[in-house]
Amino acid sequence: MFDGKTIFVTGGTGSFGNSFTRMVLTDHSPERVVVFSRDEKKQHDMRLALNDERVSFVIGDIRDRPQVAYAMRGANYVFHAAALKQVPSCEFFPFEAVQTNIIGAHNVLESAEEVGVEKLVVLSTDKAVYPVNAMGQTKALMEKLMLARAQSHQTTSTTFCGVRYGNVMCSRGSVIPLFIDQIKAGKPLTVTDPKMTRLLLPLTEAVKLVTFAMEHGQQGDVLVQKATASTVEVLAQALLNLFGADNEVNIVGVRAGEKTHEVLLTPEEMIRSEEYDNYYRVPCRAGRNYEDYFSRGDLKATFIKDGYTSENATRLTVEDTEALLLSLPEVQAELKDWPTARKLKRIAA
Ligand SMILES: O=c1ccn([C@@H]2O[C@H](COP(=O)(O)OP(=O)(O)O[C@H]3O[C@H](CO)[C@H](O)[C@H](O)[C@H]3O)[C@@H](O)[C@H]2O)c(=O)[nH]1
Question: What keywords are assigned to this protein (predicted)?
Fold first, then answer.
C-alpha cells in the first residue's frame, strides 16, 4: 500500500520513526517519506545514515499548527509518533505534555483532515489506560481526540485510527540498557519491585503493529498486538544469565509515577473487541450517540471482569526471556565481546 505514496512521520527521528522509515524504504517503493521533527542534529545523522533521495527532512514542532499543515501537504499517510514520553519530565512539566501530546496531536489530526490525508495512525501506549502519570493522561486524551475526529467521519474523508503497545525493548533510557550497563560496570542491579510486570515488545514488532494498523485499521479503531510479559525479576535474571554475571541485586522499590502492572485493554474494551491471531481490534462507537452515554447500555459488559494486562498476558519464563533478548540486535552487540557471555556461543554455533 505504500508504493508510490507519500508518507509523513511525526517524531520521525525517534526509535520508531527511524526503524519504520528504514522498513518502508527497504520493503516498499514510496514516492517520498517526510521525516518531521524538531532536532536538526538527529535529522542530520539520519540523513547521512539513510542516504536516500526519497526521504525529505522537515524541521518543525507539532505545536506549530501552520508548519505542520504546510509540511503535510501532499501526504497520503500520516504516522503520528511525536510525543513527550518520559514519565518524570511530563510529571514535572505537565503543561509541556499538554502542549505536545494533546495540542500537538490536535494540530496533526486537524492538518491531516485539512490537507486531505487518506489515513492517519496515532501511536499510544498502555500507560494511557487507567493513567496514573501526566504522560499517560495526555496520551489518553490524544486517543480521545483521534476517536472524536473519527466519529465525525460523515464530514471527513480521512480515516483515523490508533495503536497501543507496551514497553519497547531496549528503547533509549529503558531498563534493559540500564541493567546491561550495571552488569558491565560490576554494579548491583537496581530492581524496583521484583514482581512488577511489563509487556515487552521488540521494536520490529511495534513497527509491524503500526503497519498493520495503516493497512487494516478502520475509522476509529484502536489496534493492540498480543504480547508477552515478564516480571522485572525474570528480566534481570535472564540478563545476568546471558552475560554470565553474578552482580548483586538491590531492591529499590516502586518509583514515582509507575504502576505494578500495565493495562493494554480495559474489560469494557475487551467486550467490544474483535480478536485476531496476533491482534485485538477495538472498534469505535459509531457517530455521536448521546443514548450510548445516558440510556443505552451493554449487558455483556457486566460479565467480563478482566482486561488485557501485563499481569494476565502470557508470562515469559527466564529461559523464554533469554531467547527474546537474544533475538535483539542491541543485546547481541552488547554480548559480542563480553568475556563471560554464555549463550552467544550457542547462537554462533
Ligand atoms: O532501575 C530500574 C528501572 C526500571 N525498572 C523496572 O523495569 C520496568 C521497565 O522500566 P522502564 O523504565 O524501562 O519502563 P517504564 O515502564 O517505566 O516506562 C518507560 O517507557 C515509557 C514509554 O512507554 C516512558 O518512556 C517512560 O519514561 C519509561 O521509563 C519497570 O517495571 C520498572 O519498575 C527497574 O526494575 N529498575
Answer: Isomerase, Lipopolysaccharide biosynthesis
Residue 270 lies in domain: 6-165+202-226+263-304
Q: Are strands 32-37 and 249-251 parallel, antiparallel or unpaired?
A: unpaired
pLDDT band at 348, cuts 50/70/90? very low
Whether 171 is in a domain gets the answer no
Cα–Cα distance list, 98 to 55, 123, 138, 203 (Å): 30, 16, 6, 26
Task: Report ipTM (2 d.p.).
Answer: 0.94
Close Cβ partners of 229 (under 8 Å, ≥ 6 residues apart): 166, 197, 198, 199, 200, 310, 311, 313, 314, 315, 316
Domain total of the chain: 1
Q: Summarize the confidence of residues 256-284 as an average pLDDT.
A: 95
Residue 57, domain CATH:
3.40.50.720
Ligand 1 binding pocket includes 19 (Cβ within 6 Å) = no
Q: For residue 347, is pLDDT > 70?
A: no
Instruction: Kindly state whether residue 183 falls inside one of the protein's structural domains.
Output: no
Residue 249 resides in a domain: no
Cβ–ligand 1 contact at 174 (below 6 Å)? yes
Tell me, yes or no, whether 280 lies in a domain: yes
**Which atom of ligand 1 lies nearest, measured to the CA of 166?**
23
Instruction: Give me 289's grid cell.
Output: 450517540
